[in-house]
Amino acid sequence: MLPLVYHENYSYPFPEDHRFVMSKFRRLYTVLKESGICSLNEHNIYTPQTASIDELSIAHDPSYLTSLVGNEVCPKAWRRVGLPWSKALIERTLSAPNGTMLTAKLATQHGIACHLAGGTHHAHKDYGSGFCIVNDLAYTALSLLRQGQAKRVLIFDCDVHQGDGTASILSNEDDAYTCSIHCEKNFPFRKTESDIDIGLPLYMEDDDYLEVVDNTLERLLYQLSPDIVLYDAGVDVWEHDALGKLNISWKGIEQRDQLVLKKCLEHGVPVATVIGGGYDKDHDRLARRHAIVVEQAHKIVN
Ligand SMILES: [Zn+2]
Question: Does the structure show a pLDDT above 90 at 39?
Answer without folding.
Answer: no
